[in-house]
């Protein structure tokens, strides 16, 4: 049954009937991705939910996304205080809900992701990929691994190498388990609004507070050391310290630098790692596409390791990574936006002060904008391929002013690591494992991705 009705001249969008007090909260907690997919099929491009007393709409049409995120983005401000990355990174660039302070942050950080900087980061990616391959060489052929864990390891290595100078890496290594513990807590909080407050000493709360204390102590200590250093070393931490608002000359406080470091740590490595994990699953399911990928790598690289300079000559490799992002976007939804002006989509009204989420997953699989949307087909992104009828039918990095600042870095990193592994290995999903995406801060594979590391 639906709640579509005409009440007081307001046309209510369709959606599943919720429970008396909690509404649709159970569906969100149980499996949010499955809920969005099921209800998109059942109700269409706009679906109404009730979470307690709050009305929320999930929209799955690129025209609606354009309205919310680009054309009228000021009428749909980002909602703060909802947990997720904000629990870990405070007012970092991704989680900061304030348009004014966010814009200052964005201007200060933009030079860090200039293409010239990315070329230097490409060398760090190549080196991290080489270290991973060297570690794998000690394993027997067809050794069982968790590919998701391996991809998280290599992308974390890349973040550490680019964020901190070489002489700090031993100490910074202690950050990784604390970041993991904090991310796990944030994932739990996203869909558990009735969880006990932090001051109560539950096992989960104590583990998070311990992790946060480690993170704060180490990062603030590293910032103080660097501020006291006589010469800069040119890593990302230096760039954060040197970042300056062009209009006011203001620099970041230590607290803001801490938030940005953790934003890059928590979001910067997990997103690419999760997309690569799904890419290996897709390539195993489609060996003919894997062979075409490897044929391009063999022809262009002639057995040597890939570098950032090779990427323009590896178009199919880039297409494979983009198609993996289409089917399994690391950010499957936008953060909730608050409706501040009268809005109507598809004939349905969005109440003022309600919330609206754009389902990026549904946009990427929308049959009105993609032919055979569930099929893995990298040629969709070939230069001569027919493009979808709306440019936001593909938006793995979001859209509008808040589009991910690291999008070029993520695409470069993904393609390079894809080339690095596919040159030498044909990872194969272990028999009996059912791949199931789940929603956390990012989309990840539930239970990891157990594979056999088969050499070519």
Topology diagram in text:
Layout: E1 6-7, E2 10-11, H1 25-43, E3 46-51, E4 54-59, H2 62-71, H3 85-89, H4 99-109, H5 115-137, E5 143-146, H6 147-163, H7 169-172, H8 175-190, H9 203-228, H10 236-242, H11 254-268, H12 270-285, H13 287-301, H14 315-327, E6 337-338, E7 343-345, E8 348-350, E9 355-358, H15 360-364, H16 407-422, E10 425-429, E11 437-439, E12 443-445, E13 450-455
Parallel strand pairs: 4-9
Antiparallel strand pairs: 1-2, 3-4, 5-13, 6-9, 7-8, 10-13, 11-12
Helix pairs in contact: 5-6, 5-16, 6-11, 6-12, 8-9, 9-11, 12-14, 12-16, 14-16
Word description of this protein:
The protein has 16 helices and 13 strands. 48% of the residues lie in helices and 11% in strands. A hairpin with a 2-residue loop joins strand 1 (6-7) and strand 2. It has helices at residues 25-43, 62-71, 85-89, 99-109, 115-137, 147-163, 169-172, 175-190, 203-228, 236-242, 254-268, 270-285, 287-301, 315-327, 360-364, 407-422, and strands spanning 6-7, 10-11, 46-51, 54-59, 143-146, 337-338, 343-345, 348-350, 355-358, 425-429, 437-439, 443-445, 450-455. It has a 4-stranded mixed sheet with strand order 3-4-9-6. The protein has a 3-stranded antiparallel sheet with strand order 5-13-10. Mean pLDDT is 89; it is low at 3-7. It starts with 5 loop residues before the first strand and ends with a strand. The chain has 456 residues and is of the alpha+beta class.
